[in-house]
Specification:
With about 725 residues, the protein is of the alpha/beta class. The protein folds into 4 domains: about 5-220, Glycogen Phosphorylase B (Rossmann fold, 3-Layer(aba) Sandwich), CATH 3.40.50.2000; about 230-445, Rossmann fold, CATH 3.40.50.2000; about 475-570 and about 645-725, 3-Layer(aba) Sandwich (Rossmann fold), CATH 3.40.50.1000; about 575-640, Hypothetical Protein Ta0175, Chain: A, domain 2 (Alpha-Beta Complex), CATH 3.90.1070. Helices cover about 40% and strands about 15% of the residues. Strands 3-4-2-1-5-6-7-8 form an 8-stranded mixed sheet, with helices on both faces. The protein has an 8-stranded mixed sheet with strand order 19-18-17-16-15-24-25-26, with helices on both faces. A hairpin with a 2-residue loop joins β3 (about 75) and β4. α3 runs parallel beside α6 (about 175-190). The radius of gyration is 31 Å and the shape is elongated. The two termini are about 20 Å apart.
Length: about 725
C-alpha cells in the first residue's frame, strides 16, 4: 500500500549533536546549526503529514566528549530519532577534516537504509558536508534533495581574505577551495534550497554559478517560545514556575553578581561563540571608550564554554585573550562579566530574562550575520536588541520592530544605540513589547514547520508525478538495489558474449523474468564506454551494476551513476605516476593506448613469462609501492591500486548493499577473473575458459561448466539452484 505521509532524512554531520543539554558554543562546530536541526526535526515530527523524521549525524566515541555521542540511535519521540553513523574513526575531529571520510558515511548510510527496508521520501543536507552526503543519496535512490547551507565557503573566504589571512593558509586550515567546489555541485543538484533571509539568496548564494539551478525558499529559523517566555512571567507565584528554572535563574545571578560592583544596573548582554567574525572586541571597545555608557550599565559577555583558554584553537584563543586584554586596557573590572561557562538548556533563557528585568539590551555586533537566532531568543523574552546592519538582523528588525540596526564596525554608533534604548524608558517598553508579540507572529516553530512541510510535500508530489519534469535522476537504482539480496555478476568477453553464443537470449529472458529477486552485473576489463558499446551490440540491457577496467571503477543503473565511494576506498596509497616511472625502463612492457588507461588503472602489453611478473613485483615492492597486479590471456598486464580488483569490488558491493557474499554467483573465463572466482561467492568457469584458470579446478564453490559462454552461466544457475534460493 502506498504511503501518503512523508519520511524525511536530515543530515547534520559535524559537531556534537544530541537532543538534550546541547553543548552550544563548546567549539566552532557546535553552534546554532545543531540547535536548529534538532528543533526543526522535532517540530516536523509532530505534524500529521509527516510519518517519520530521522536526523543523521556522526557517531563519536571519544573520552574527551560525552558518551551520549556514541549511542547509535537516540529516540527523541515516537516519530523522531537521531541516527549516528561512524566514519573517519571514532575520535572527535573538526569538520574540515571530515571531507575524506564522507563517502564512507554514504556507504554506511546505505547499509542502514537497506537494513531498515525503508527509503526516505526526502533527504535534506545541512552545511556542505551533509549536502554532499544527501546529494549522493538522492542520486542513488532517485529522491528529492533539499539543502540548507547555514554558511557558505565563498563568503567565508572573502571575509578571511579581508581580515588579512593568506589564501594558502585559508586552504590549509579550512579546505576552502574544495568546500566551494562541493557547494557548486550541491547547488547544481538540489531541487530546493532553504534560506533564512532574502539577503542570503541575493548576496551569498549569488556568488555561485549554481545559483540558477535550485528553487529557493525563505523560511526563517524559529524558536521554542515556551522556553523563551517573557521576563515578566517570572513575577508569577513560585508554584507556577519549575524548580529547574528558578535554580537556573539563581545560578546566573550568582555568577553575574560576583563580577559587578553595582549588579542592579541595566545589563548589556552579548552571547556568541568566541569567533573574530562575532566582533566581541568591537563591542568591548564601544563600551570601554564611552564613560557615560559605563555609568549607565554593566556589560556581560558570554563567549562560549571554556576551561582553559590555552586549550582552545587559535581563532578562539585569540578572541578570548583579546577580551581579557581589552578588559584590562579600559579598566572594566567590576563593570564587565566574562563567565567561563553557562548551561545552554536552562541558563541561557534566564540570561535574557534577567537582562530584560534589569531594563538592559542584547547586542549582536557581528561583522556579518547570516541570521541571528540569539536575536529572536532575546526578542521573545522582551529584551530589546542592537544588531549589525547585515544579513538576518535586517529581516528580524523589520518584522519585530524591537531594536536598532548599526554599523558594527563603528564603536561610537554601537554605544550610541545602546544608550538610546536604555535612557528612554518609553522606547525600551515599546521595543520590549514589539519583540514579544512579533516573534510569536513571525518566528514560532509551528509556523516554520508548516511552511517547510508545504514546500517538501509539494516537491514530493512533483517527483511522484510522471507528467512533471523535475531535476532528479530518472533511474533510482538505489531503490532496486536496496530490495535485492541475490546477484549474478559475469565477465563480458568470452563469458557473457562471444563464440556461437546461442544461449544468450535464454539467459537474458531468465534475468528479465526473475528481475524482482535477482540483480544483474558485469565485471570486465573494458572501460565503461567500451563496455556499454559492446553490450548494445548484443542487445544486452544496461546491468544494475557495472564493474569496469578490471575493478578500477563501479557504475550503477541506466544512468551509470559513478561509484564515488569505491573511488575513495581504493585511492589510498595509489601513486599512478610513480609506478609508471618505475616501470618505464622495462623494455618488455608496451604501454597500451590512452583509451584503455584510467585514473586507477595502468595497462601494458607483455608476452608471457613468469620471470617477468616476478621482476615487476620485486621492483615495485622494493620501492614501497602499493598495487594489485593482474595478468590475463598471456599478454594483458593491468596494475591497479592495492584495494582494487574485480573480486574486491564484489566484496565492496556485498558490504555496501548488505548482500551476503554467498548470495553472489560470479562467472568468468580468464586470468583477470581468477581473483573474483575465489572465496565465498558461488562461481562458475565457463566451458571455453583459458588454461590460466586450471589451478582453480577442485575448489569448493567453483563449478567448471561443460557448456560455453552464456550456456555455462545457465548451467551454473541450474546446478546451484540459484533461482530457488533467490525466490525464498
Amino acid at each position: 500500500m502506498k504511503r501518503n505521509k512523508l519520511y524525511i532524512q536530515m543530515f547534520s554531520i559535524h559537531g556534537l549533536v544530541r537532543s538534550e543539554n546541547m553543548e552550544l558554543g563548546r567549539d566552532a562546530d557546535t553552534g546554532g546549526q545543531v540547535k536548529y536541526v534538532i528543533e526543526l526535526a522535532d517540530s516536523l515530527s509532530w505534524r500529521n503529514e509527516i510519518e517519520q523524521v530521522d536526523l543523521f549525524t556522526r557517531l563519536i566515541s571519544d573520552k574527551t566528549v560525552s558518551e551520549d555521542y556514541a549511542n547509535p540511535i537516540e529516540p527523541v519521540n515516537e516519530k523522531f530519532r537521531i541516527i549516528r553513523i561512524q566514519c573517519g574513526g571514532r575520535k572527535y575531529i573538526r569538520k574540515e577534516l571530515l571531507w575524506p571520510h564522507l563517502d564512507e558515511y554514504i556507504d554506511k548510510t546505505i547499509k542502514h537504509i537497506k537494513r531498515e527496508k525503508r527509503i526516505p521520501d526526502i533527504v535534506h543536507g545541512h552545511y556542505p558536508d551533509a549536502g554532499y552526503v544527501a546529494m549522493h543519496l538522492a542520486g542513488i535512490f532517485g529522491i528529492p534533495f533539499v539543502f540548507t547551507g547555514h554558511s557558505l565557503g565563498r563568503v567565508k573566504r572573502k571575509k578571511l581574505l579581508d581580515d588579512g589571512m593568506d589564501e594558502t593558509a585559508i586552504n590549509k586550515r579550512y579546505k576552502i577551495d574544495y568546500r566551494i567546489q562541493i557547494e557548486e555541485q550541491v547547488l547544481g543538484d538540489a531541487e530546493l534550497v532553504i534560506t533564512s533571509t532574502r539577503q542570503e539568496i541575493e548576496q551569498q548564494y549569488g556568488m555561485y554559478q549554481g545559483k540558477e539551478y535550485p528553487t529557493f525558499s525563505v523560511i526563517p529559523p524559529s524558536l521554542d517560545i515556551e522556553k523563551f517566555y517573557p521576563f515578566y512571567h517570572d513575577l508569577l507565584p513560585e508554584i507556577e514556575r519549575t524548580e529547574s528554572a528558578m535554580y537556573a535563574q539563581a545560578s546566573v545571578l550568582r555568577e553575574l553578581n560576583r563580577f559587578f560592583m553595582h549588579p542592579d544596573k541595566p545589563l548589556i548582554l552579548a552571547l556568541c561563540r568566541p569567533d573574530k567574525r562575532k566582533n566581541i572586541s568591537g563591542l568591548i571597545q564601544a563600551y570601554g571608550e564611552d564613560l557615560e555608557l559605563q555609568a549607565m550599565a554593566n556589560l556581560g559577555v558570554f563567549a562560549g564554554i571554556r576551561k582553559d583558554i590555552t586549550d582552545k584553537e587559535d581563532n578562539e584563543r585569540d578572541v578570548l585573550t583579546t577580551m581579557l586584554l581589552l578588559m584590562d586596557k579600559y579598566d572594566l573590572y567590576g563593570k564587565m562579566a566574562i563567565p567561563k561557562k553557562h548551561d545552554i538548556e536552562n541558563e541561557v533563557p534566564e540570561l535574557y530574562r534577567i537582562s530584560a528585568d534589569k531594563k538592559g539590551v542584547f547586542v549582536n555586533a557581528a561583522l556579518t550575520e547570516p541570521f541571528g537566532i540569539t536575536l529572536l531568543e532575546a526578542a521573545a523574552t522582551g529584551l530589546p536588541i542592537v544588531a549589525t546592519n547585515d544579513g538576518g538582523p535586517k529581516d528580524i528588525i523589520e518584522n519585530c520592530r524591537n531594536g536598532i540596526l548599526v554599523d558594527s564596525t563603528n564603536p561610537k554608533a554601537v554605544a550610541s544605540a545602546i544608550k538610546d534604548i536604555i535612557a528612554d524608558p518609553d522606547k525600551w517598553e515599546q521595543f520590549s513589547k514589539n519583540g514579544i508579540m512579533n516573534v510569536r507572529k513571525h518566528y514560532t516553530w509551528d509556523s516554520h514547520a508548516e511552511k517547510y512541510s508545504k514546500e517538501i510535500t509539494a516537491l514530493s508530489k512533483k517527483i511522484r508525478s510522471p507528467e512533471l519534469e523535475v531535476a532528479v535522476p530518472t533511474d533510482p537504482i538505489g531503490r532496486r538495489l536496496a530490495k535485492l539480496n541475490y546477484f549474478i555478476i559475469t565477465d563480458i568477453d568470452n563469458t557473457l558474449t562471444g563464440g556461437d553464443n546461442h544461449k544468450l537470449p535464454d539467459l537474458l529472458d531468465l534475468l528479465r523474468i526473475h528481475r524482482q529477486h535477482i540483480g544483474f552485473g558485469v565485471a570486465t576489463g573494458r572501460t565503461i564506454d567500451s563496455a556499454v558499446e559492446h553490450l548494445k551490440e548484443y542487445d544486452i540491457p544496461i546491468p544494475d551494476v557495472m564493474i569496469t577496467s578490471v575493478g578500477a571503477e563501479i557504475y550503477y543503473g541506466n544512468d551509470l551513476h559513478y561509484g564515488q565511494g569505491w573511488e575513495t576506498h581504493i585511492a589510498k596509497n595509489w601513486d599512478r605516476e610513480r609506478i609508471k616511472q618505475l616501470l618505464a625502463d622495462f623494455d618488455f612492457l608496451e604501454y597500451q593506448e590512452e583509451a584503455t588507461q584510467r585514473k586507477f588503472k595502468i595497462s601494458y602489453f607483455m608476452d608471457h613469462s613468469k620471470d617477468r611478473l616476478a621482476q615487476i613485483h620485486h621492483h615495485l615492492l622494493k620501492n614501497n609501492c602499493k598495487y594489485t597486479l593482474i595478468y590475463s590471456h598471456e599478454k594483458f598486464l593491468d596494475i591497479l591500486p592495492q584495494r582494487a580488483s574485480k573480486g574486491k569490488a564484489i566484496r565492496y558491493l556485498s558490504y555496501k548493499w548488505e548482500t551476503p557474499l554467498g548470495n553472489f554467483l560470479v562467472c568468468g573465463d580468464s586470468g583477470n577473473d581468477e581473483e573474483m572466482l575465489r572465496g565465498e561467492p558461488l562461481a562458475v568457469v565457463v566451458g571455453n575458459y583459458s588454461k590460466e584458470l586450471e589451478s582453480l579446478r577442485g575448489r569448493r564453490n567453483i563449478l567448471f561448466a561443460e557448456n560455453s559462454y552464456a550456456g555455462g552461466i545457465l548451467e551454473a544457475i541450474d546446478r546451484y539452484k540459484f533461482l530457488e534460493r533467490a525466490a525464498r
